[in-house]
Design brief:
Blueprint: H1 10-29, H2 34-38, H3 48-72, H4 77-102, H5 106-128, H6 132-137, H7 139-159
Family: Belongs to the TspO/BZRP family.
Pfam family, one: TspO_MBR
Keywords: Membrane, Transmembrane, Transmembrane helix
Length: 162
């Protein structure tokens, strides 16, 4: 299916569009309104302006990792499972923003971020089966989601119950 989108360019187009969709959906769900501004946050929280550049870098690296793994994986089941791993991760990435910001439930988001972190770890394993470089490119994503989880936990601890 992906090859039919343009041969060699198909995986690149799919990876780029997927990254943009996940980033846009997460950004749309992220509302920095009065509720968010009223939350007590730890002193080590990165400034709000840093999140955009960090996520842009992570999504770019993730798309590159996906293309590298796709091109190295044999056709068939291996590629299907790669796509499935990326799809699950994308859904969990978007869901965290919805739970935290739209539902205003950092406590539920804390549970969801654990699933997101695990999906990144599994994504690294899935990509690593086909591309060591691709797996390495996903390491910042794992670190950032781990940092987000610690921040999420701190916000729950400082502001709960919700």
């Amino acid at each position: 299916m992906i090859e039919s989108l343009g041969g060699r360019w198909g995986p690149i187009v799919v990876a780029a569009v997927s990254a943009i969709v996940v980033a846009a959906a997460g950004a749309w769900l992220t509302t920095l309104g009065p509720w968010y501004r009223s939350l007590r946050v730890p002193s080590w929280k990165p400034p709000d302006w840093a999140f955009g550049p960090v996520w842009t870098t992570i999504f770019t690296l993730t798309a590159i990792a996906g293309v590298l793994a796709w091109n190295a994986a044999p056709e068939g089941a291996e590629r299907f499972w790669l796509l499935a791993a990326f799809a699950v991760n994308g859904v969990l990435n978007i869901a965290w923003s919805g739970v935290f910001f739209r539902l205003q439930r950092p406590d539920w988001a804390l549970i969801e971020v654990v699933a997101l972190w695990l999906s990144v770890a599994l994504l690294i394993l899935a990509v690593g089966r086909h591309s060591g470089l691709g797996a390495l490119l996903l390491a910042p994503y794992l670190v950032w989601v781990g940092t987000a989880a610690m921040l999420n936990w701190s916000i729950v601890r400082l502001n709960g119950p919700f």
